[in-house]
Write a structure and sequence with these properties.
heterodimer, A: 425 residues, alpha/beta, five-stranded mixed sheet, 14 strands, globular, B: 209 residues, alpha+beta, four-stranded antiparallel sheet, rod-shaped
């Protein structure tokens, strides 16, 4: 009953996805994390495309899991649905950090399609960008209308849980790795998280403890399933089951089977489109934030285990592409055996949300204590403000010349396209 | 890492107020339980005290009764002490009829008493006076009082005289029973034995106790 002598468990991370609801609770044990309980329940097919019914069903599933799973307490940390969070990139002159918040709020009045006074607005400092001869700082402004947020909070509260914090998915995904940064070198390490969900894919570029870029692409597992269904003349659930079975058994290079070949052909167009979007995003990042080259692309989300997609991304990129294992450094013995299979990359969002209320950094189960990191230095000076249309900017970045290498210490040839090495030569 | 928080402020406030209300409700329930327990304990103590009071009153009544009896006994003792002091001063008054009745019981029928002499002897007990001289300096000196009785009579023979002396000696009140003399005597032409017996009666015996 009383856990005074034991480490107190963190709140439950609640990830409400398009196809399932996942809950994960961890507790710090010494210097590492241990999973206390987890739960995953699928959302019925018939309500997935109805937002109201989807939320009602998700609320019922959360209530069921709180009652039937061995979670400690009912404190929840969840993230806002992607469709109610509006994201804008704003470039500001270098101004003191104390004035940055007021400047972003002032500039945000005109960039969102609704009145920001009736919404909740936050911002994330992406980093300094060089625009011609000027140096500016790029800020990612996030806003959600109060009505939408209140409806969502009331909906979740009806499940019997108490919301401890309300986050956004990119921050939660970044937190999975940020809480494990141990060395000062790792603070400058740039990595890309590609969250491939059922409806859309998010590309998040992280630099150490900072979030530099994120963009949502409307390509996801749903589109792959629809293509397979159309190509093979089967229903959507059958197509999903077929792809899932192929993810578990088939090798990415094994295309002798006709069914496998058909599935590959059916999904190739969307996957190539996804690879192209990823390449454009990375190119935009390289052009904008010069000197910070990504070293790894990590795939997270429910569709991340697709070997075909992994092989295509590897083929299209010179950066190391891997399926993320967010729970690798945590004790997962309390997870159900069914949830413990594979890379467990689908738990990344729930895991990141579960770590929301702690500021600690953790190590692997047999790791050593890590060092504490100082904050970022403040900027100065003033200039004009510019709102960046990320979609157009990413498309425009494709036409720009390649960026020269600035840091000799970069270990990997961190450019997306193969043309970079050719241009370098 | 800069954290973003979209949780509305009203939710936190509502949560805090709800927590406060819950705490207050539990505190009220706890207080009510504590009051009930305290009232119960107080009532139990009152009942216990009331029972103890009743028991105490019963004991006090009994003690009062004993005190009254003690007072009456103390008065009797004081009265008896005063009488004892009077007796120690004047000695025991021996009724003549009782003494004569005792002598008549001890005298065989064949013996005729022809004379009786009663003498009171008073002499100071030197040993007792020396012992108690310091303790009772202001008191009267101890006096040993005895009633000396001398009987003269005639008997047909010495056997009757001996029988009489045995009877007198067996009486616990009499002491120093002794023969004064015995001789033949002629009484109207008949030869009888004339004798004299003496004994003493301690007049201080009741006051010594």
């Amino acid at each position: 009953m009383f856990r005074l002598t034991r480490p107190q468990p963190l709140p439950i991370g609640l990830d409400i996805g398009a196809d399932s609801v996942k809950m994960l609770q961890v507790e710090p044990v010494g210097n590492h994390l241990s999973v206390i309980a987890s739960g995953r329940m699928p959302i019925p097919e018939e309500v997935r495309h109805d937002p109201v019914a989807h939320r009602n069903v998700a609320t019922d599933l959360v209530r069921q899991m709180l009652q039937t799973h061995p979670f400690v307490g009912n404190r929840l940390v969840t993230c806002l649905p992607r469709e109610i969070v509006h994201i804008k990139n704003v470039r500001l002159p270098l101004i003191p950090a104390a004035e940055l918040s007021a400047a972003v709020e002032f500039e945000s009045r005109n960039i969102f399609p609704f009145d920001v006074t009736d919404s909740r607005m936050h911002w994330v400092l992406a980093g300094e960008v060089r625009q011609g001869t000027e140096v500016r700082q790029e800020v990612i402004a996030l806003a959600a209308q109060n009505d939408h947020v209140n409806q969502f909070v009331e909906q979740i509260h009806r499940s019997g849980g108490v919301i401890e914090s309300l986050d956004i998915e990119p921050c939660a995904l970044h937190r999975c790795y940020e809480r494990y940064i141990r060395r000062r070198d790792d603070e400058q390490d740039v990595f890309v998280l590609v969250d491939i969900g059922l409806r859309r894919t998010q590309i998040i570029v992280c630099r150490g403890r900072d979030l530099s870029f994120f963009k949502s692409i409307d390509i996801g597992g749903e589109h792959f399933n629809a293509s397979v269904s159309k190509k093979l003349g089967i229903s959507i659930p059958e197509a999903r089951a077929l792809r899932r079975r192929m993810c578990e058994t088939a090798s990415p290079t094994d295309r002798r089977d006709s069914v496998t070949r058909s599935v590959f052909d059916a999904t190739r167009v969307q996957m190539e489109e996804l690879c192209r979007e990823l390449a454009l995003c990375l190119r935009y990042y390289l052009v904008t934030f010069r000197g910070h080259r990504p070293r790894t692309v990590r795939l997270v989300g429910g569709e991340a285990n697709d070997p075909q997609l992994l092989s295509m991304l590897k083929a299209a990129s010179s950066i190391a592409v891997e399926i993320a294992t967010p729970l690798l450094s945590a004790d997962t013995s309390a997870l159900r055996p069914a949830d413990r299979q594979g890379s467990m990359s689908e738990w990344a969002t729930a895991f990141g949300l579960a770590l929301r209320t702690t500021k600690r950094t953790f190590g692997p189960i047999d790791g050593k204590p890590r060092e504490m990191i100082a904050g970022k230095p403040a900027a100065g000076a003033q200039s004009m403000v510019e709102v960046v249309d990320l979609h157009n900017a990413v498309q425009a970045a494709a036409k720009l010349p390649d960026v020269p290498t600035r840091r000799l210490s970069d270990r990997a040839p961190a450019l997306v396209g193969r043309g970079e090495e050719a241009s370098r030569a | 890492m800069r954290e973003v928080e979209f949780l509305p402020a009203w939710y936190t406030v509502v949560r805090r107020r709800k927590l406060a209300v819950t705490i207050q409700a539990w505190a009220t329930v706890g207080l009510a339980i504590a009051l009930i327990v305290c009232t119960g304990i107080a009532r139990f103590r009152v009942l216990t005290a009331r029972n103890e009071l009743i028991s105490l009153r019963h004991d006090m009544a009994k003690t009062q009764e004993d005190l009254n009896r003690l007072d009456s006994m103390t008065q009797i003792k004081r009265r008896w002490s005063e009488q004892g002091q009077v007796l120690s001063k004047i000695g025991v008054s021996v009724e003549s009829t009782r003494l004569l009745g005792l002598i008549a019981q001890s005298t065989p029928e064949s013996i005729s008493l022809i004379g009786m002499n009663l003498t009171t002897e008073e002499k100071i007990d030197a040993a007792k006076t020396l012992v108690n001289v310091r303790a009772s300096r202001d008191k009267e000196p101890a006096i040993d009082r005895k009633l000396r009785v001398r009987l003269q009579g005639v008997a047909p023979s010495n056997a009757e005289v001996a029988d009489m002396m045995t009877r007198l000696a067996s009486n616990s009140f009499l002491e120093d029973v002794s023969m004064g003399y015995t001789k033949d005597s002629d009484q109207s032409g008949r030869l009888v034995r004339e004798f004299e017996v003496t004994f003493a009666l301690d007049l201080d015996a009741p006051t010594k106790e």
